[in-house]
Recover the amino acids of this structure.
């Protein structure tokens, strides 16, 4: 039996339909250009406006693979809903839970500071911003750098892996070849290089100041604390 | 993973014919079916067909894509061993681009892949396979055996803390058993170890041709080492416990060695490169293949045929016969000779064309989406199996006698010695895996536990090497490269469940041909054009039935143990016919196969 036959049989009876992973949500790798199977995501098959008999739209938790905690958390939310303890699940226009996919990778990335200062990695293995190596983080909706991959460990750009946009409906065709700098990013990273380079210089001055102990801590017999007796 | 699904009771009938559907039998995913005929008078499986119902066409849609995308794409072939694919693809790309990653990058990949083996074998053994040997299962299939287990003292009770064999079985009960739960915790930690090195499980974010993007710091390796040492400690209990459990099955059911037994035809493509030697040049592949920390090899009837990766590569043949594809006779040959000047066969993956031809399933004709990979020894097309990975890796490594991983792991020619260093509460401990008499279900399972210890010991060495690089100031993890206009490449490694190869042809800077061969097409392959059955098929075909249940309560536990000892990735819908094939019984199956709804 084909998967679409399973869907035809099960979907009409379902309280809710959840699509898990980018293949199930938007087609993903197996629906890439030139595929011989005609694979597609659940909303493309059932229709984007499809609602379950309980009035719940298709719930999409994309990601290739989907983040395990994003998945179980969404199931949990639906269970709360099913028992009347939570309101309708808030979804965005691509049917993703808003609290998970509202922010971009970049907004949650601990390397965004390098971007802001116009400091870009030119080789893999560098701790700096990966945008020039092919990272799509600034425009991809995903919480992985924020959440880590398991128990806060791992992730993508936060640990040295370019974001290839695996949670996005345009994945993979619109992101390939993955290892080239995103064409749209050239202008913004150039602007950041100019502005950020200046900011970085200013910050270097401040950092150098802060990176030294206050001047009254020094070798010698006299114990100074910076205390000044006030006399009235 | 073992959440209960629908279960139904059987309907009564007086006929001796029966059909059963397991869905999913694998406890993971399901697109493989095993169809058997059982002779109840002889208590033996007389015929078996394995069938795969999934086709996605990677080789087709990868054509014309940028070769640097290959590891990102092929990782998605599998939701269980995606990182093995990514690794293998990166190896094939390194060869094609002529790039040698910095040593540190290779140590990081080795640490990631070792963690993957430690993670996957652990969760599979304890949380998936273990269920077939747990108290609840044995109570339902072989109450007599459970009774015996209650009165059998565990020989290594002092090492693992379980007094009787029944205590071990109880600890493996799904969700409730103590060891089952501990193994779940261990699987989280090993997955963290993996993510430290490769970013994400199971599709790595930090693997690239030329090396890794992982930021190599002291902190990275400390975070890994602290978790690794807890695993080392865990293995000192886990391994003796499994020896006790598996030895007991031989003792309790004389003849149990025949379950899942097949001719010894084991293949291993080698794993975990030694960066001191591996330059990814095809011309030197025989040399650096022999330096791998798991030695490649073809083992036939217990003898090593070759450990030369070039010979192994050239002997691979992809046959059709029972598969839903058209032959590629008359199509273009991409690679007529390898870089050493050896002729490359038309049926070699470099020259393969994938031409799907869907059809209705017919066991007398075409019945599967898997092809029939074979290894040609100059005379016969051998239906090699991986035995689920570990048994082939250990067997091949033991026979070659080449491996010496800093004294932590040593191959002797007839065994593999594993030295686990001192850990928090346990002293140094030595284990020895000895080449077994049979390639059967029990030995495939036993080897899995030993290979977990192997990887833990090897990882201790890899950490030492990585730390030495950092301390010497070699922090570079990636090397630049250019994609040539025309090139070929091949990658060899071990996916968790066995051999994995990727073959790539680049023309005009684009992928012209790409064929990955993971373990499942080997193990789950089908009757080829010469009529030779695949490994699942002939292993199940000879399996005797030890289950105490009569046909109407039959669970097929011995068949399940035979199939799961290889690989849980595909076995799904299993249909059994007893007698002439009329269906009298249909029951829906739960992942753990217990009667009581839980």
């Amino acid at each position: 039996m084909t998967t679409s036959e399973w869907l035809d049989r099960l979907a009409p009876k379902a309280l809710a339909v959840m699509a898990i992973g980018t293949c199930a949500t938007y087609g993903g790798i197996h629906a890439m250009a030139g595929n011989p199977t005609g694979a597609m995501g659940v909303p493309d098959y059932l229709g984007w406006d499809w609602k379950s008999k309980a009035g719940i739209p298709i719930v999409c938790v994309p990601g290739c693979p989907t983040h395990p905690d994003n998945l179980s958390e969404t199931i949990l939310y639906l269970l709360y809903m099913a028992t009347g303890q939570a309101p309708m699940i808030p979804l965005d226009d691509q049917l993703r839970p808003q609290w998970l996919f509202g922010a971009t990778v970049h907004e949650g990335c601990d390397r965004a500071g390098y971007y802001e200062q116009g400091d870009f990695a030119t080789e893999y293995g560098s701790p700096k911003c990966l945008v020039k190596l092919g990272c799509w983080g600034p425009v991809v909706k995903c919480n992985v750098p924020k959440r880590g991959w398991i128990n806060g460990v791992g992730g993508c750009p936060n640990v040295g892996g370019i974001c290839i946009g695996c949670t996005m409906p345009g994945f993979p065709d619109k992101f390939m070849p993955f290892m080239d700098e995103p064409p749209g990013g050239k202008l913004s990273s150039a602007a950041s290089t100019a502005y950020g380079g200046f900011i970085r210089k200013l910050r270097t001055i401040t950092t150098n100041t802060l990176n030294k102990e206050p001047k009254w801590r020094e070798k010698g017999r006299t114990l100074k604390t910076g205390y000044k007796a006030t006399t009235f | 993973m073992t959440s209960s699904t629908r279960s139904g009771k059987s309907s009564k009938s007086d006929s001796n014919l029966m059909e059963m559907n397991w869905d999913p039998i694998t406890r993971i995913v399901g697109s493989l079916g095993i169809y058997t005929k059982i002779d109840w008078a002889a208590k033996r499986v007389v015929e078996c067909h394995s069938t795969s119902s999934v086709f996605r066409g990677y080789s087709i849609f990868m054509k014309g894509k940028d070769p640097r995308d290959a590891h990102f794409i092929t990782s998605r072939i599998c939701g269980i061993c995606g990182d093995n694919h990514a690794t293998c693809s990166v190896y094939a790309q390194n060869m094609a681009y002529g790039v040698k990653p910095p040593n540190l990058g290779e140590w990081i990949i080795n640490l990631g892949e070792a963690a993957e083996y430690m993670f996957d074998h652990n969760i599979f053994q304890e949380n998936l396979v273990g269920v077939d040997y747990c108290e609840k299962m044995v109570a339902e299939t072989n109450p007599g055996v459970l009774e015996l287990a209650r009165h059998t003292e565990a020989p290594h009770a002092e090492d693992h803390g379980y007094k009787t064999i029944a205590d071990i079985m109880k600890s493996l009960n799904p969700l409730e058993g103590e060891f089952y739960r501990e193994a779940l915790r261990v699987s989280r930690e090993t997955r963290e170890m993996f993510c430290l090195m490769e970013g994400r499980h199971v599709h790595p974010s930090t693997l690239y041709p030329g090396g890794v993007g992982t930021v190599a710091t002291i902190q990275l390796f400390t975070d890994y080492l602290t978790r690794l040492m807890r695993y080392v400690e865990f293995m000192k209990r886990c391994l003796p416990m499994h020896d006790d459990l598996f030895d007991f099955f031989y003792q309790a059911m004389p003849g149990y060695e025949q379950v899942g037994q097949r001719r010894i035809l084991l293949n291993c493509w080698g794993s975990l490169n030694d960066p001191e030697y591996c330059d990814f040049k095809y011309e030197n592949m025989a040399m650096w293949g022999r330096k791998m920390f798991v030695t490649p090899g073809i083992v036939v009837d217990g003898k090593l045929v070759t450990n030369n990766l070039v010979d192994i590569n050239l002997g691979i043949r992809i046959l059709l016969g029972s598969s839903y594809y058209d032959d590629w006779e008359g199509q273009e040959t991409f690679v007529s000779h390898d870089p050493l000047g050896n002729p490359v066969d038309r049926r070699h993956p470099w020259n393969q064309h994938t031409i799907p031809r869907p059809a209705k399933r017919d066991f007398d004709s075409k019945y599967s989406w898997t092809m029939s990979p074979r290894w040609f020894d100059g005379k016969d097309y051998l239906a090699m199996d991986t035995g689920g990975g570990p048994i082939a890796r250990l067997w091949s490594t033991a026979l070659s006698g080449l491996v010496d991983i800093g004294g932590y792991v040593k191959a002797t020619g007839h065994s593999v010695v594993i030295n686990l260093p001192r850990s928090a509460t346990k002293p140094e401990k030595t284990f020895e895996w000895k080449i077994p008499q049979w390639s059967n279900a029990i030995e495939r399972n036993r080897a899995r536990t030993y290979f977990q210890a192997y990887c833990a010991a090897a990882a201790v060495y890899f950490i030492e090497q990585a730390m030495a690089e950092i301390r010497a100031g070699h922090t570079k993890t990636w090397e630049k490269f250019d994609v040539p206009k025309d090139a070929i490449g091949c990658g060899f490694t071990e996916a968790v469940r066995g051999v994995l190869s990727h073959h790539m042809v680049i023309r005009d800077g684009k992928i012209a041909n790409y064929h990955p061969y993971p373990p499942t097409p080997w193990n789950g392959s089908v009757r080829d054009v010469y009529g030779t059955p695949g490994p699942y098929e002939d292993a199940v075909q000879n399996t005797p039935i030890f289950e105490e249940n009569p046909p109407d309560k039959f669970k097929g536990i011995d068949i399940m143990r035979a199939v799961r000892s290889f690989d849980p990735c595909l076995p799904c819908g299993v249909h059994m016919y007893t007698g002439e094939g009329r269906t009298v019984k249909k029951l829906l199956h739960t992942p753990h196969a217990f009667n009581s709804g839980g």
Q: What stands out?
A: Chain B is about 35% helix and 15% strand. Confidence is low (pLDDT under 50) at residues 1-29, 570-591 of chain B.
